[in-house]
Amino acid sequence: MSGNDAGSIPPWQGGIVTPPASYKPGDWHPDPFPEPENSQQAIWNKRLSYKGGGYRGYYIAALTARDGTYELGVSAHEIEYMYSDPRSTL
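The structure assignment produced for this chain is given below.
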């Protein structure tokens, strides 16, 4: 049984069944992201790190009047990281 009806996703076989060629017993699992070969790759890796495709969130503030009454103000914001778009270039 495969992971989807089309058969393009292989079935779950219990995780990593064969270690990568660079693995030596007692080592940590190797990092899937190789060391950058040049400065452009290093900058690209930094720009993409820990961000994903974007972020959506809210700012909430108590807007206080002179008489002590207040009202909660909510401001929604959404950020899209264009670097995650494969059409982007350095």
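Interim note for the steering committee: The mean pLDDT is 78. The two ends are 42 Å apart (CA to CA).
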